[in-house]
Task: structure prediction
Amino acid sequence: MKIADRPVGGGAAPLVIAEMSGNHNQSLERALEIVDAAAAAGAHALKIQTYTADTMTLDVSEGEFSIRDKNSLWNGKTLYQLYQEAHTPWEWHAPIFERARRRVAELAASGTAVDYAVTLREIQERDRRDAGRDAAPMIPAPDAVLVDSSTQTLEEVVDSLASYVEARRKPAAGDQ
Result:
């Protein structure tokens, strides 16, 4: 069996995939630290979960949607609240992928064998699978503006978005 171009199974070297999950605690800085830690530990790939609370559950507090176990760390919370706390925002993809690219380059420079192309193909395959599923496909809204910020500073991203908004802003009645 192969994942992308990498053999997996009997006789093949192990494929180590680190899982970020919600361990970033809603901090991009912590998410990037997880990338660094995964690379330092020798992971070949990093799995991130991208969803919103709305794509995972309903915003209700009754029945099975609410946790009512006094022994639970999440007692009194709803599933919706938990998914809000754990989700990885879409806008974090670019900095996470950029950090992963830099770590691959650093590891390669140190003599550690890393295959970025394989890792990237695996991420893209996962994204295609998630976008094509029947239930809650991970696709941008029809009117979404997609910005590849992987090589831009925060200021450049803000400037480009401000320009986009200004160019499409409907003139007010007094502006005509």
In short: Residues 93-109 form the longest helix (17 residues). Residues 2-50+88-139 form one domain.
